[in-house]
């Protein structure tokens, strides 16, 4: 009987959402804002500049987020390579809880996406932004790309991992464990917890 629970973020943790988001931003701005992976240095897309210094407004972000949430876009997101394999290994020790702050419009295609990519047995939760650590009870382990959310998990005693992206780089001390890829994350989660 598996009694420990792991909280897994979806976007940019299980799924390569950023790639699609940047291409939606490019199309939405008719090529004016051409963000590269390394330009996404904060969690908020409207605070990121492309190499010419161009950026989207917060109002544009809101519209872009709606476009992203449509079924035809959600369903084209690529899962990270071999993510199902890693989750299968983790599922030997933890009950998997996939927890996302995606918009309401994205719920149905998100369920479909998880089914069509053969994710192992899991629970799926849609919660408010920044509330994962309080919305669903106690998790032994969490995996996030959003640094503030990861730090909130760490502050209440959850072993809090961050999948490394430019957006969560920092020089400050932190109780979180930031690892470069899923091979390292999986090994750490299975061995150390
Ligand atoms: Mg995320």
Question: Could you please describe the fold and organization of this structure?
Answer:
It is a single chain. With 193 residues, this protein is α/β, with parallel strands linked by helices. It has 2 domains: 126 residues, Rossmann fold (3-Layer(aba) Sandwich); 58 residues. It contains 8 helices and 6 strands; from the N terminus they run E-H-H-H-H-E-H-E-H-E-H-E-E-H. It has a 6-stranded parallel β-sheet, sandwiched between helices. Helix 1 crosses helix 2 and helix 4 runs parallel beside helix 8. The longest helix is centred in the N-terminal third of the chain and has 12 residues. It is globular and about 50 Å long. 32% of the residues are buried. Bound molecules: magnesium ion. The site of magnesium ion has 6 residues, from loops.
